[in-house]
Amino acid sequence: MTDAAAETLSVVVEREVPHPPEKIWRALTQPHLMEEWLMKNDFKPDIGHRFQLSADWGSVEGRVQTAEPHKTLSYTWDTKDLRSVITWTLTPTSTGTRLRMEQRGFRPDQQPYYRGAKAGWPRFFAALEQVLERMD
Description:
The chain is α+β, with helices and mostly antiparallel strands. It has four helices and seven strands. The longest helix is centred in the last third of the chain and has 24 residues, at 111-134. The N and C termini lie far apart (44 Å).
């Protein structure tokens, strides 16, 4: 690991949600559901797939790195000069799923991005939980 990699910051949000991993996976990977809680997109959970997320504030370019259905999903999250990776981990529990999201790769000089992610991801999680409640 390089010194630069050791200095990067991560944002982690972890929640216990009362839904099975299969249902959460659909919300994390189906474009029409992702649009409800995250952004407009052309996402496909295929390793190597390049996609774009867009919102009124701008866009994010991504590429799927890992897609193990109902277990883990990771993709790059690149916007302007930020190069980061999002990793979702779904762990079944007796009452649903422990859902963990980590965005890693914020350099120390990228505090505005880091603060934005720390504020934004809990809101995305709340919106995701609302989508999960409405899904059949």
